[in-house]
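fold-stage: in
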Amino acid sequence: MSTDVLTDRQKKIARYAKAMAHPVRMYILELLSEQSCCYSGDLAEDLPIARSTLSQHLSELKAAGLIQGEIKPPKIKYCINRENFEEARALMRDFYKL
């Protein structure tokens, strides 16, 4: 399939959906949406997964723009990227109305 037929909207929906396509990532998003921010160390204590696996999940969410991180050695503070989170919500809502 030629990528010429794909719209920016379709590409954004797919990117957000891919980032949310794992239960751990959904847990992270739900947790961060309920509070202002969270340190990666706190997440590591809550989740029964390796820190390296957590880091991969956080990287995927960050690459999609759903979260943002602020590095303050030795900690990294993560927050929801409100603008992109709202865009993802609106795109998904509109998509499911089709």
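fold-stage: in (second)
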Amino acid sequence: MTGEPVLEVRDLCVDYGVGPGGVRAVTDATLTLRRGEVLGLAGESGSGKSTLAYAVTRLLRAPGVITGGEVRFHGPDGVLDLLEADAATLRRVRWDQISVVFQSAMHALNPVARIDAQLTDALRAHRARLGAAERRERAVELLRLVGIGEERLRSYPHELSGGMRQRVMIAMALALEPRVVIMDEPTTALDVVTQREILDELMQLKDRLGFAIVFITHDLSLLIELADTIAIMYAGRIVELADAQRLFHSPRHPYTLGLLNSFPALHGERVRMEGIPGSPPALTALPAGCAFHPRCPFALARCAHDVPRLTEPAEPAEPDGAPAARSAACWLHTGGEHVPAPLARVLGSTP
């Protein structure tokens, strides 16, 4: 079950570069991550998912610049604005309270350091009271948490399989029992069996330890099963935000619908998959109005010049009796427009 907020992002904006040559990579992103929740970020490559995550943790490399917004972390010592925090405070919070599993475990791990050294680095920095024997004991415990034997402590990353390296990265992220774990494409390039094993172990650890997860991926089908809440990003904006089941059964944004139609169902009748025509726009030359309108089969005249805001669609409560808690950035749902049937489904209806 999810609980109180642990991370709140409000109107976050991120640019690459400054002045006339700057490019807006994330625009007005607003999210809330709650304790014990899995919040998924999905979208095509270049949509701003990783940029948003690294901005939240202040890990953006130059020329990335945070140009607006607020990021509030609810930690054991109260609420901290991460965008206003100084370097010492960030060093104290990172890994101890907020950790990151980076893309590509082979490149994220130090190729010339053994696994035990990499697992104990964070312990040495944040748990100075622990002696060498205690740090090693904790390293063994962490490897066992993710299904790796003690004998691998003295291995180098190249001596491990891709799945084992990914497990080591997850173990490192959990070393200090943080409140929030940000996972950036953690199963990319792994076979589906290894991916399933790692994700099953991850969910068991989440339930056992109580941390919250921000899970970034381009694979929406994976998030439907894994996440509690999903945010869909396109061209640097969040275009839809809803709980996973509502988003899957009754999407409200045409881009979300296109993503859902791009992967096959495992059950039911065989249907023709439909891709999304065209390609995502370059951030240096975004179209006017809604950035998705050149690819949208339901575009209205105003979509070409007015940018829609992320708002709650005007719709009644759904059959389960709960309000249709969701938001979408689409002019079709602002009232007065005919909403196409695929974007007007309610939870429990037949697609």
